[in-house]
Amino acid sequence: DGGITQSPKYLFRKEGQNVTLSCEQNLNHDAMYWYRQDPGQGLRLIYYSQIVNDFQKGDIAEGYSVSREKKESFPLTVTSAQKNPTAFYLCASSMARQGNTEAFFGQGTRLTVV
Amino acid sequence: AQSVTQLDSQVPVFEEAPVELRCNYSSSVSVYLFWYVQYPNQGLQLLLKYLSGSTLVKGINGFEAEFNKSQTSFHLRKPSVHISDTAEYFCAVSETNFGNEKLTFGTGTRLTIIP
Fold first, then answer.
1. What is the DSSP track for A54-99?
2. Do A99 and B97 touch (CB under 8 A)?
């Protein structure tokens, strides 16, 4: 079945540590996105990529980094510079063609700083 | 820049009653509009979308929405809700110009169905 896979589902991190969240899709989508979800704030865009080897900052990119070396993969690293990393992280992908911006989402990764 | 406003953070509704979840948007260009549903600890699932054409859009699970350009609204409705509709609902918008497909989301509306 085609879809988006995020791993792990739950992740615990000590303060000061970097951690990488995985996102893989087999939908042959060009565009991929990372969102952060906090209660009462909806989804906020961290980074997005419309093509391999290219990505852009979203609204809350500080303290995060990404790479897009393969079309299928868009890992997100939460660095020690992110002051409040505890949140639910959602990865999405879309075909990124005019008139077809429907995004498909993974099941999310819940990150907790301990 | 585009933005989305969902005025109601929580909506309680009795089972089998109708419901309307409100969504207003702001954008300087024409947009595509979406409603997504999220069940606890899961990702988002598309309910319906408006790209062009008829302003009344039907989606999954008996939901529908109407695009009103003059009021910049895209309210979601269901004539009779079920317990299984308990979830959080997000309205989202993207610009129609190619190269700017990223979605902007509202803050969500938590729908609670009362038996």
1. EEEE-TT-TTEEE--SBTTB--EEE-TT-S---EEEEEEEE--BTT
2. no
Chain A residues touching B90 at Cβ < 8 A: 42-43
Q: How many CB pairs under 8 A join A and B?
A: 65
- Contact state of B41 with A90 under an 8 Å Cβ cutoff: no
% residues pLDDT > 70 (chain B) = 96
Strand bridging mode A104-105 / A87-94: antiparallel
The string of pLDDT tens digits covering residues A28-59 is 999 999 999 998 888 999 999 989 999 999 99
Instruction: Give Cβ neighbours of residue B75 (< 8 Å, ≥ 6 apart).
Output: B20, B21, B22, B23, B65, B66, B68
- Check residue B41 and give its pLDDT: 82
